Amino acid sequence: MKIYKIPMIGRAVDEKHRAATPLELFFDLIFVIAIASAASGLHHYLASHHFWEGAVLYVQMFFYIWWAWMNFTWFASAYDTDDTPFRLTTFLQMFGALVFAVGIKQMFATNPSFTAGIIGYIIMRVAMVIHWLRAARESAVDKKVNYRYAWGVGLAQVGWTLWYLLPMAYDDKSWMIPLLILAEMSVPVIAEGNRLSTTWHPHHIAERYGLLTIIVLGEGLLGTANTIGNLISDEVSWGKVILPLGVSASGLIFALWWIYFDIPWAKILERNRTRRVGFLFGYAHYFVFASLAAVGSALELVADAAQQYYLPSSTHIEHPVSRLFAMVVLSITLGVYLVSISLLKITTTENSSTNRMALWLGLLVSALPAVLVYFRLPMMVSLGITVLGIIAYIQLCNWESCERTIKKR
């Protein structure tokens, strides 16, 4: 770290050995809390059989989490100086993220309260505007671009604050939320202009996205742990039930990890560092992250259903959850993940026959949990067959089979 301050003139796109900093890893810890709260809120709504309300709230909450994380990540990739002012401003942003994370539980309540969430976001945005204004002052090359970012981020937050202050019930003003989200997402598009102006680093961005993928996969591991923990009893056999179900669930998460990290995202971004690919990669990952975290919520439902099925005398089941419902939710979340990954490969590399096959195979594999349980197969068998299906997806759609199709666009 520089003791005081160095000019924020932008990092080199081709900087060697660029990696995530300890500050960025510390920053991510806040989002572990936020993502866990969102996944827990989704599980609560689904277990209470409020499917659509829970899904809409989750999609909304996860956008706020992902957008705050992404704003900092791309800025740091281009302008991280790791000096005292940068660290202190990032600390302010982290504190805002922590306040926001605390507020997620209130936003998932029956009568949602957005007070803590709005306050947290205001703090984060003040810090983000400070970052962009500093970059605008000290980087002569991208001055106009950075001022556009600062104005855009600030105006977007003014919009959210005015929305919050409107003397209307949440349901009466919820129609404004998609418009505000579109306004948020348009800020980088407008600020960057017709070319990629900021000097983000392909390998650094790929690493940062990979680290957040690890975090959201943790929700799946938590769901697996709860599946095992809920069944530990003298009434349930370890050999016939607990271990097979646990291996199947953890094998599923391992396979999803394998799919993501089989793809050399850094190489793709380096060979195709264009405006189109940058925005596709950055924005489409929302569906990857949100679906992986939701897989954890689905596995929590599997834990509830397994406890209800194998321990019907248990008094700890607050809401009955059927095996079919749990597996339908799992199928939906798997489908979003596999389709998102397949479409990302198609749009950032090549619309090849291999990538198209991955898309259709992903849809087929994701349907397996729901279909197999519908035809009365045990959950552990259904999960096991699903894992085998994902292994087939990995084998048939692995990166080596389509690497030759990468184009320099």
SSE string, helix = H, strand = E?
HHHHHHHHHHHHHH
Q: How many domain regions?
A: 2
Estimate the global geometry from the Cα principal axes.
Answer: globular
| Radius of gyration based on Cα positions | 22 Å
**Helix/strand class:** mainly alpha
Gap from first CA to last CA: 37 Å
Number of E-state strands: 0
Tally of DSSP helical segments: 14
Care to give the gist of this entry?
By secondary structure, the protein is mainly α. Helix content is 76%, strand content 0%.
Account of the 3D structure:
The structure is a single chain. This protein has helices spanning 22-47, 51-79, 84-107, 115-138, 143-165, 170-173, 176-192, 202-231, 238-261, 265-271, 275-310, 323-348, 353-374, 379-396. It is mainly α and 409 residues long. The longest helix is centred in the last third of the chain and has 36 residues, at 275-310.
